[in-house]
Design goal:
single chain, four-stranded antiparallel β-sheet, initiation factor, repeat, globular, 46% strand, WD40_repeat_dom_sf, 319 residues
């Protein structure tokens, strides 16, 4: 599993995302730059410049045009198409399944509360006036991670207090609410068919939920905070990344800090593999759409693409 090392950021990676075909990998970091890479060889295709602060999230519209990307909050098509102004930093963003609706949430900071905003790209007036067709205030606890649910009917959001909410994309009302985590949810990702979501939390665990009912299915426990988790598109596997808190990294060796990517069996909840490489906590992980590789971005500013044979990891536990 010799990784391909991507060096295109000067500060820690905040999110990585494949497009639908898997030929492109988008990376964003705290250094104001967004990069796009060829996933097959790690060659950098280009850089999106324009931000003046940390870029926390990125998404790619794979339905209408595989070269359209969304950063907080600037839609691009090789060049900047539009810019949406917000009062505070944008924490999460994403295209719905059709590619027509975008959502993004803002941070609770500088006296402003957290909002979840929805824009319809088919209405140019919304973009021109910088007015979303729906704004949902989140006064109790800010959104730290969010993804679209099946068919674009709602957004599944993880909060700072450990709650998971379903927000309707039509009315903004909370359709369902659960709280299985005791601390902040750092990441939420969906399965390839959007039937399940996996969370990563500061409470040292990752949990699997039904995306429609939010029923808790499985729990994967570790000894360190989990920053990100992803579901394999072809196997019953999940990969998790995290490690010791960044403020304590300078006093800890890589072995003690547990900076490995950790593989768990989705059904048995058992860990069966670890992959080393990063020199600090892993901030984000993502499986390639074909399931034969995964990428990880770390606090060290590097992104690593690991290729492997998923059958090598297939196993069954004795009853």
């Amino acid at each position: 599993m010799k990784p391909i090392l991507l060096q295109g950021h000067e500060r820690s990676i905040t999110q990585i995302k494949y497009n639908r075909e898997g030929d492109l990998l988008f990376t964003v970091a705290k250094d104001t730059v967004a990069n796009v890479w060829y996933s097959v060889n790690g060659e950098r295709l280009g850089t999106y410049n324009g931000h003046t602060g940390a870029v926390w999230c990125v998404d790619c519209d794979c339905i209408l045009n595989p070269r359209k990307t969304l950063e907080p909050c600037r839609p691009w098509l090789c060049k900047q198409l539009a810019m949406l102004n917000t009062s505070s930093a944008v924490r999460t963003c994403g295209f719905d399944f059709s590619g027509n609706i975008i959502m993004f949430s803002t941070d609770k900071q500088m006296g402003y509360q957290c909002y979840l905003n929805y824009f319809d790209l088919r209405d140019p007036q919304q973009i021109e006036d910088n007015q979303p067709y729906l704004t949902v205030p989140c006064a109790e606890s800010k959104i730290t991670s969010a993804v679209w649910g099946p068919l674009g009917e709602f957004v599944i959001a993880g909060h700072e207090n450990g709650e998971i909410n379903q927000f309707s994309a039509k009315s903004g009302e909370i359709l369902k609410k659960v709280k299985e985590h005791s601390k902040q949810i750092n990441d939420i990702q969906t399965s390839v068919d959007l039937t399940m979501v996996i969370t990563a939390s500061k409470d040292c665990s990752s949990k699997l939920f039904d995306s429609t009912t939010l029923d808790h299915i499985k729990t994967f426990k570790t000894e360190r905070p989990v920053n990100s988790a992803a579901i394999s598109p072809i196997m019953d596997h999940v990969v998790m990344g995290g490690g010791q808190e960044a403020m304590e990294v300078t006093t800890t060796s890589t072995r003690i800090g547990k900076f490995e990517a950790r593989f768990f069996h989705a059904a048995y909840e058992e860990e069966f593999g670890r992959v080393k490489g990063h020199f600090g906590p892993i901030n984000c992980v993502a499986f390639h759409p074909d399931g034969k590789s995964y990428s990880s971005g770390g606090e060290d500013g590097y992104t690593r693409i690991h290729y492997f044979d998923p059958q090598y990891f297939d196993f069954e536990l004795e009853a």
